[in-house]
Amino acid sequence: MYTMSMAQESVFTENRDYLIELSRKYLWWEDPEAMTRQPYRILAAAMNLGSLEDYQKMYRTFGSPLMIEVIQQKVPGWFSAKSWSFWHRVLDLVDVVDVVPQAPQRIIQ
């Protein structure tokens, strides 16, 4: 689904325990160990559902460039409209006077 640089892989490897913690908390129905192979999905779930404390720790741990990459995956269902808008503002992806683009949506036929 997405490719990561060696630097990104290194950050995820170094913070594997934290990813497992986030996976257990926000993707409880999935196997946390297996989910570490999908770190963007874990971060998206935490960014979508997380607490302010989680946001702050993710920001300190992974930094805004990596969190921006999570948003840029544009996977339908990863973010609610509210979270999508919030992160576009927090990560300065849109100017304060601009309209946030619509969140990707799942289409069920």
Give a quick rundown of the structure.
The chain is mostly helical. 61% of the residues lie in helices and 0% in strands.
Structural class: mainly alpha
Note the gap between the termini: 22 Å
Report the radius of gyration as a whole number of Å.
14 Å
What is the string of SSEs from the N terminus onward?
A: HHHHHH
Largest sheet: none
SS strand fraction: under 5%
Which blocks of ≥5 consecutive residues have pLDDT under 50?
Answer: none
* Overall spatial form: globular
Classify the helix fraction into a percent range.
55-70%
Strands, count = 0
Number of helices: 6
What is the averaged pLDDT score?
91
Description:
The protein is mainly α and 109 residues long. It has a domain at 6-75. It contains 6 helices and no strands. It is globular, with a radius of gyration of 14 Å. The mean pLDDT is 91.
Give keywords:
single chain, mainly alpha, 109 residues
List the helices and strands and how they pair.
Elements: H1 6-14, H2 16-26, H3 32-35, H4 39-49, H5 52-72, H6 81-90
